[in-house]
Amino acid sequence: MYSLAAQIFWTFADPARLIPALAVVGAILLWTRWRRAGRLIVTVAAIGIFAVGSLPVARWIALPLEYRFPAFTAFDADIAGIIVLGAGYAVVSDLTGMPTVEASGGRLVKLMELAEVYPRARLAYTGGGSPTLAISEADRAARDLARVGFDVGRVAFEGRSLNTYENAVFTKDLLAPRPGERWVIVTSAIHMPRAVGTFRAAGWEVIPAPVEYLFGRESNFAWGTFNPVRQFFWVSRITHEWIGLFVYRVLGRSDALFPR
Q1: Which of 28, 165, 193, 200 could form a disulfide with 255 if both were Cys (CB 3.0 to 4.6 A apart)?
Q2: pTM: predicted TM-score of the whole model, two decimal places
Q3: DSSP notation for 192-236
Q4: Which fold has domain 81-211?
């Protein structure tokens, strides 16, 4: 029920849909007796489209998420295990049978890297994705890892979870971590605050290893270099994380509003 409600809500709250939809609604109202409201809505939408497409809005709202936790540095202490969170649906990958690096490459590369650094650590990949797809995120990851010769027998795959909360709960049930063990969690940098807060709320303290950064700390903003379509794509992803942090805290699925 939660997953369905979240999908319905995001259909209307996604900035990539909401702002253009406001422009259309406002344009329609211009031809009715509510044209003053139409002018206001069109103006707001136009400013939003210009701001997202021409200013580094995505970078501004991403940096607090991406650099909330420092990059992971390997250390000599024992690591009990490494958990990689699923990386999205990658529908094209499912339809063609070919790997889609943009969807999961950074996380899988980090898994292979850390598996070599910590050869005794337990490995896990958690992600079911969408029940409407023919293959789960976990099955897709197993397929892609096997293609590059990685020993998938080392990895415990959890393929039922549909969201970050279920990632934490189902993976904890699967692996049964012991108190005091050190576990590393791998996910995208913008998703790491919500992931850490969720695992902590589930009673599992984890060490963050963020990957797949969207932006560097130093600004590379330049007029005329922005792609509005890509900017809206980024703003959509980043806004989803900010809303997710708030909702998870309200529902008690995270131990803090903005975990540190």
Answers
A1: 200
A2: 0.87
A3: HHHHHHHHHHTT---EEEEE--S--SS----TT---HHHHHHHHH
A4: Rossmann fold (3.40.50)
